[in-house]
UniProtKB/TrEMBL annotation:
EC number: 3.2.1.-
Keyword terms, alphabetized: Calcium, Endoplasmic reticulum, Glycoprotein, Glycosidase, Hydrolase, Metal-binding, Signal
Highest classification ranks of the organism: Eukaryota, Viridiplantae, Streptophyta, Embryophyta, Tracheophyta
Cofactor(s) named in the record: Ca(2+)
Annotated protein name in UniProt: alpha-1,2-Mannosidase
A family per Pfam: Glyco_hydro_47
Signal peptide: 1-32
Organism: Trapa incisa
Binding residue positions for Ca(2+): 480
Subcellular compartments: Endoplasmic reticulum
Family the UniProt entry places it in: Belongs to the glycosyl hydrolase 47 family.
This protein's record includes keyword Calcium: yes
GO cellular component, as recorded: endoplasmic reticulum quality control compartment; membrane
Length: 583
């Protein structure tokens, strides 16, 4: 492998999308196992196992729970889980029915990825005729946005793209019409003094009297993809404007360390919980900064993420682990792993920090192997499961990060990890009526609940790990609920053509330097250099250059952030910037 290289301080939309575009193709060259008939046969076998898992879950849902929200696989009954989010009623059904066919909505893009256009068309037509949001229902804005709005917007795009998945004339934008109706019912939630949305809203009557003013960072910062896409599709700017306004306000509330808390008051704009990390309540805020930059091309999103990422690496990271810390001081508060944190390595892959992604991912895999699944909380300081949060609700985050790391490296070890996940799910959670959540990972006692995200995300990412056909010809961003949105030139406010020269780090070579992502050089430099015949410039998410090109300094303020450790560099007594404190 090539020795560590200096990385530049910026990562552009162009090269993020370059990674998305080349990851299924040029990186195939990076590992000798790719093209091995036995390895390919193994991937096909695992792909079919995952296909069987999806349809076991989907068919049991359709048989025992549809058109209610989610399946109870042990008793082969149903739960209207959106009763916690609000009861979305379907037309032409009994008045006391409170389901929303949530699992069907969540399964739409998975059906497309599995190549089942017939079932996709049936589902689209059924939802077009039956789903209505004109109901007296109190819903959670965050959950309804990522699950329902995201599912509808993504399915509309898949129904109208060039693949001709639906019978001509059978689809007249019905899902987009439903999505716009739902988006309009979201808008009253943003009518606060701060522009930060209420966590809960009634679909028929708006914000109720005495509604709670408390929400989470994720609740305010995980709206821009779905609502932004809705604006681009409909030409109505209100949705993206509301989501962007909330995101900007949220960012303005960060501490001097560029950290945010976990919960806040939407009316006063004051923090309630100052401790935070990269897990529950905050996780998708970071995710959406990166993905919004890819999807919409705004440099503003990237600048936010870069600052936030440096803060995370400096104050939350401890070796391969990430603990929680006080946003005001950076002092550690809780030393715990949460299962939602397992998305982080996948996000790091998108920004080119692959070494750090691999390091953290392996620790999550070790915990998975220790228990057979990933517990909701794991106490790092005691190396035990949290005494009250021992459950595993079929979450997708580890499979998601495994998929991204395999796409980046083509290392067959990630296929082995995926195989281990598949075997564990089938061994511990598969029942005759579907797949059940685990109530206690220490005893493998099951819980009678098959969450919709098992079909929307868990099965999807495992399938894509073993078969990237859907991914290979297109650029997609997956929402936090696993719904694909295409990267389209016409959705971009601005496509950067070049960057400020001082922001580039050059590798000296007699030949002309070429633009390349840090992904491409770090992972397979010999292949990339041979293919491109040019020495690339490298980018990094956390690198901030020293103020002077000769690295001279008077104080620590003249020094930047190291590209590999993401630690602040300091000024030595001889007047040069470096990582002197960590030598």
């Amino acid at each position: 492998m090539m020795p560590p290289l200096l990385l530049s301080c910026r990562l552009s939309w162009t090269w993020l999308v370059l990674f998305l575009a080349i990851s299924p193709s040029i990186f195939h060259l990076c590992n000798s196992h790719y093209g091995d008939p036995r390895a390919e046969a193994k991937r096909r076998q695992l792909r079919e196992e995952v296909r069987g898992m999806f349809y076991h879950a989907y068919n049991n849902y359709m048989m025992y729970a549809f058109p209610h929200d989610e399946l109870k696989p042990l008793t082969k009954t149903f739960t209207d889980s959106l009763s916690e989010l609000g009861n979305l009623k379907l037309e032409r059904l009994p008045q006391n029915y409170n389901g929303s066919a949530l699992t069907l909505i969540e399964s739409l893009s998975s059906l497309v990825i599995l190549g089942d256009n017939t079932e996709f068309e049936r589902a689209v037509i059924w939802l077009s005729k039956n789903l209505s949001f004109d109901v007296d229902a109190r819903i959670n804005l965050f959950e309804c946005n990522i699950r329902v709005l995201g599912g509808l917007v993504s399915a509309h795009i898949l129904a109208t793209d060039s693949a001709n998945r639906l019978v001509q004339g059978s689809y007249q934008n019905q899902l987009l019409i439903l999505a716009k109706d739902l988006g309009e019912r979201f808008l009253p939630a943003f009518e606060t003094p701060t522009g930060l949305p209420y966590a809960w809203i009634n679909l028929k009557y708006g914000v109720l009297v005495n509604e709670t003013t408390e929400t989470s960072t994720s609740g305010c910062g995980t709206l821009i993809l779905e609502m932004g896409a809705l604006s681009r599709l409909t030409g109505d700017p209100r949705f993206e404007s509301a989501a962007l306004g909330a995101l900007r306000k949220l960012w303005s509330m960060r501490s001097s360390l560029n950290l945010l808390g976990t919960t806040l008051n939407v009316e006063t704009g004051e923090w309630i919980e100052y401790s935070s990390g990269i897990g529950a309540g905050v996780d998708s805020f970071y995710e959406y900064l990166v993905k919004a930059h890819i999807l919409f091309g705004k440099e503003e999103y990237w600048r936010m993420f870069q600052s936030a990422y440096v803060g995370v690496q400096k104050y939350f990271r401890h070796g391969p682990w990430y603990h929680e810390a006080d946003m005001r001081t950076g002092e550690a508060t809780y030393w715990q792993l949460t299962s939602l944190q397992a998305f982080w390595p996948g996000l790091q892959v998108l920004v080119g920090d692959v070494d750090a992604a691999n390091s953290s991912h392996r620790e999550f895999v070790h915990v998975w192997e220790k228990y057979g699944v990933l517990p909701e909380r794991y106490l790092l300081d005691h190396q035990i499961v949290h005494p009250t949060e021992k459950y595993y609700p079929l979450r997708p985050e580890l499979a998601e990060s495994t998929f991204y790391l395999y796409q980046a490296t083509k290392d067959p070890w990630y296929i082995e990890v995926g195989e281990s996940i598949v075997k564990s799910l089938n061994r511990h959670t598969k029942v005759r009526g579907g797949f059940a959540s685990v109530r206690d990972v220490t005893t493998m006692q099951l819980e009678d609940h098959q969450h919709s995200f098992f079909l929307a995300e868990t099965c999807k990412y495992l399938y894509l790990l073993f078969d990237d056909t859907f991914w290979v010809e297109h650029n997609y961003v997956f929402t936090t609920e696993g719904h694909p949105l295409p990267v389209l030139r016409e959705w971009h406010d601005r496509l950067p053509e070049a960057y400020i020269p001082s922001n580039w780090t050059f590798i000296k070579d007699d030949r002309q330097a070429s633009k390349a992502s840090s992904m491409s050089l770090q992972l397979c430099p010999a292949t990339i250099l041979s293919a491109w015949r040019q020495a690339p410039r490298i980018e990094s998410a956390c690198h901030i250059p020293d103020s002077r090109m000769d690295h001279r300094c008077l104080t620590d303020e003249d020094c930047g952030v190291d590209s590999t450790s993401c630690r602040r560099r300091s000024c030595s007594t001889s007047g040069y910037c470096g990582s002197w404190l960590f030598l």
